[in-house]
Amino acid sequence: MANSKTPRLDELEKGRWPSFVKIMKRAAVKKPAAGDLLKQLELSYEEKVGHWKHGGIVGVRGYGGGVIGRYSDRPDRFPNVKEFHTFRVNQPSGWFYTSSALRQLCDIWDKYGSGLTNFHGATGDIILLGAPTENLQPCFDELSEHGFDLGGSGSDLRTPSACVGPARCEYACVDTLDLCHTITQEFQNELHRPMWPYKFKIKISGCPNDCVASIARSDLSVIGTWRDSIQVDPQAVAAYADQGLDIQGEICGKCPTRALSWHPERKELEIRREECVRCMHCINKMPKALRPGRERGATLLIGGKATMKESAFLGWVIVPFMKMEPPYTELLDLLRRIFNWWDERAKNRERIGELIYRLGMRAFLHDVGLPPVPQMVARPRANPYYYWRPEEVRSNG
Amino acid sequence: MAKTDIGPPDYRQMLPPVVQRNYGRWRFHEIVRPGVLRHVSENGEELYTVRVGSPRLLDTDAIREICDLADRYCDGYLRFTSRHNIEFLVSDQSKLEPLLQELWKREWPVGGTGNSISNIVHTQGWIHCHTPATDASGIVKAVMDDLYDHFTHMDLPAKLRISMACCLNMCGAVHCSDIAILGIHRKPPYVDKELVSKICEIPTVVAACPTGAIRPNPKEKTVEINEERCMYCGNCYTMCPAIKIMNPETDGVAIFVGGKVSNARTAPMFSRLAIPFLPNNPPRWPEVVEAVHNIVQVWIDHAQKGERMGEWIERIGWERFFQLTGIPFTEKHIDDFIFSVPTFRSTTMFRW
């Protein structure tokens, strides 16, 4: 190893977890760009600093987003990553693939890019890492010819994503894959042409386990839920007990609202529907015996985002329950009203959660036409600083 | 010219036949062994899922290798999870064991189910980002090497979700993870005044600062930074490359703990500051690996069965968390940003 050009990165070939360095080295055998990427990364490891220039706008015809410009700040040493731009390719709902579709992508990417990818980026797109400017248009053309399209970037609708949903999960209360595909297709213009104050993310989870972290990572979070009682298979409950599951301790004892009672003498689980807040704990622990109810739909939450700049927010409930069935007209109409409200009022780079915080939830709900209900708040305000609309105020009445 | 606005491929063309037949009709699932799920549908059909950890950064050879395995054992169907795992979808039970054997031979880790650590969600870092305070892939590799057995064995009190973002932009949205590893800066940026006037839109830069630390200097067409107010978030750098925030001497890593997104038992929670700073020490960041290892081990030793990191800490109290982990509590742990008040203690109930 004395002659290695990447002594620091070589250390990351050791250990049991799959090594990204091994992968980069293999790609470097075929692609000079991957080789220079490896060498530039080694320099970063030596100097403890990044070596990508700030920004740079590149793109393909007809779109304003979907390609991220990336230029090395040391093109003198690493000429093959002088231009090393990223494609965001919109993933199929639920990240399902056939091997032939993936091979198709590989063939295209070997032809135009570095051969390196991310499966997947943080928002959910397929990330194709590193192509020179001149290859962007032909690469996109070929992607499009084979049925792939670009995802969002910049101040636009970002690529929506969804959990595995009804394709392989018995908890799914909504068809997350269909809804994700429908929203993505409905808002192609908003996805491809950045013209908003800032980014807008939508994520869809089929149940309150929220496997795509929609409550934390999306401006509009759709989380499947139900309104009636959890479905119980009494025989399967008894079978769990017979197998030694501590139903009193592990199930009833962990229920956040004490909505469950266990009657060991009868091996019977009692669920008080009006106390249940549908957290999923008991269903997660006894999937053979318990299922979400039959009256299914979704809770909508707004404003979720990471820290920058006014603090991280978890989404806030704006619709406690909405039926989610094709063609999803009620949701799509609401989304349009939300987009417009935000687009007309937000400052540059102001996420919708920050705008609602600035202008007030009262204004948001009123303007987009959502009635206030107690499910929206953890508790009512404790201060007397509230407003009256003039038409609400009559003398002594 | 290529067609635009066609949208992503239709997911229906990507679903294995067993999924198409049982779409929305799955009855239950069980974890057969770490990394292997068995889903059973209402009509009794079975689907086995084999979950495999990946470094997220894959070359086309790796993808073709995965495709070969999918062709041989899964009729050419597979999927990925939201945490960068690969999932092989096996509809023929007789192919399950041979697939596992082959994955073992090829050194792909199988696991990440139930009470285990799943893959670390992470960002680009020095590989492809222009604003990182640290690398992502290197730290993830070093931490996962250390926690590997918790990926392949379901031996934890509950599931463990670690995520990594290499700057405060948090493309990895680490803010609701059991353990969040976050690249941070610690010094106010250097303003290249001449360059600011040439390439930056000053009102946007001023507006980008969360603490109002940036003032315009109209005379020189640049900006000035009130260094006492700056908390080094780097949002100004995102807006203006002439305001340099990256500093190889002083940048590093912070650790936040106790977040979750699931609603199970307790409401979703933010991760909260545990360790304000650890040094950037490539290639294997031993201080970060050790710190994460310690937090995980203390949680294993003290949590009740089924308790996520944040649930455990909320039960025992943060004061005991700091005591048990030996992590020093400092002034940095006390919030002084705009939503700080609800984090102060307004009761006489606390522990020693």
Spell out the key features of this protein.
heterodimer, A: alpha+beta, 14 helices, globular, B: 352 residues, alpha+beta, 5-stranded antiparallel sheet
Report on the architecture of this protein.
With 397 residues, chain A is of the alpha+beta class. In chain A, 33% of the residues lie in helices and 15% in strands. Chain A has helices at residues 7-10, 20-30, 32-47, 99-112, 133-145, 176-186, 188-192, 214-217, 234-242, 247-251, 281-285, 329-345, 352-359, 361-368, and strands at residues 67-68, 85-89, 96-98, 116-119, 126-131, 161-162, 202-205, 220-226, 231-232, 260-263, 268-271, 290-291, 296-302, 316-322. In chain A, strands 6-7-8-13-14 form a five-stranded mixed sheet. A four-stranded antiparallel sheet of chain A has the order 1-2-5-4. In chain A, strands 9-12 form a two-stranded antiparallel ribbon. In chain A, helix 2 (20-30) crosses helix 3 (32-47) and helix 4 (99-112) packs antiparallel against helix 5 (133-145). Chain A is globular, with a radius of gyration of 25 Å. The termini of chain A are far apart. By secondary structure, chain B is of the alpha+beta class. Chain B contains ten helices and 15 strands. Chain B has helices at 17-22, 60-74, 96-105, 137-152, 193-199, 202-207, 235-239, 286-302, 309-316, 318-325, and strands at residues 26-33, 36-41, 46-52, 57-59, 77-80, 86-90, 121-122, 162-165, 179-184, 190-191, 214-217, 222-225, 243-244, 252-257, 272-279. In chain B, the strands form four sheets. A five-stranded antiparallel sheet of chain B has the order 1-2-3-6-5. The longest helix of chain B has 17 residues, at 286-302. The radius of gyration of chain B is 24 Å and the shape is globular. Classes of the chains: A alpha+beta (397), B alpha+beta (352). The interface between A and B is large, with 124 and 117 residues. Strand 4 (116-119) of chain A pairs antiparallel with strand 4 of chain B.
